[in-house]
Amino acid sequence: MKRHFRVSFFISFRQYYEKESGEKMALEIERKFIVNTFDESLATGEIHIIQGYIKTAFKGVVRVRTWNEKAYLTIKYRLNRLTREEFEYEIPFKDALKLLKNACYCTLDKTRFLYPYQNKIWEIDRFNDRDLILAEVEMVSEEEKVAIPSFIEREVTDDPRYSNNALCSNGGVPEIR
């Protein structure tokens, strides 16, 4: 039996930090991995995500994303290998659907599973339009050591072909180098 839940109950590191500190967090520090197989029954939650990208003149990305019945507009740009500035704003769901249809040059359809492991919430993304599963884990600092679950195949943090924007643009699964 699949467990569905609304984003309002989703507790990620960012939301935990904001709740505890009262401050908004604009930095995203994360690592990304390829997953061979994932037992979805281990997940504590599941979110259906449609996200699209809007072309921009700057080196970052502008993303529109629906999470179940909520929607967000996000602006991101890389500061270094693991850290990005991230600004995310909730927008009306109907507006997001219009943007996805009319303003985005490509879209991704994925199911995100939340997997608690060693005091972290891993986000496991199963892409619904291709044979690919990726895992991401957010960290407090770039130096933080994280325990890696056994289902991880290999790290692709430094491989730009596995960014969601690149996956969306290329429409397939990158060949292993």
Task: Tell me what you see in this structure.
This protein has 177 residues and is mostly beta strands. The chain is 15% helix and 41% strand. The chain has helices at 13-21, 93-102, 164-170; strands spanning 27-35, 45-54, 61-67, 70-78, 83-90, 106-117, 120-127, 133-138, 152-155. A hairpin with a 5-residue loop joins β7 (120-127) and β8 (133-138). Mean pLDDT is 85; it is low at 1-14.
Keywords:
177 residues; mainly beta; globular; disordered N terminus
What's the short story on this structure?
The protein is 15% helix and 41% strand.
- In total, the number of strands is 9
Number of helices: 3
Share of residues in helices: 10-25%
Q: In angstroms, what separates the terminal alpha carbons?
A: 37 Å
In order across it, which strands form the biggest sheet? 1-5-4-3-2-6-7-8
What topology does this entry show?
Layout: H1 13-21, E1 27-35, E2 45-54, E3 61-67, E4 70-78, E5 83-90, H2 93-102, E6 106-117, E7 120-127, E8 133-138, E9 152-155, H3 164-170
Antiparallel strand pairs: 1-5, 1-8, 1-9, 2-3, 2-6, 3-4, 4-5, 6-7, 7-8
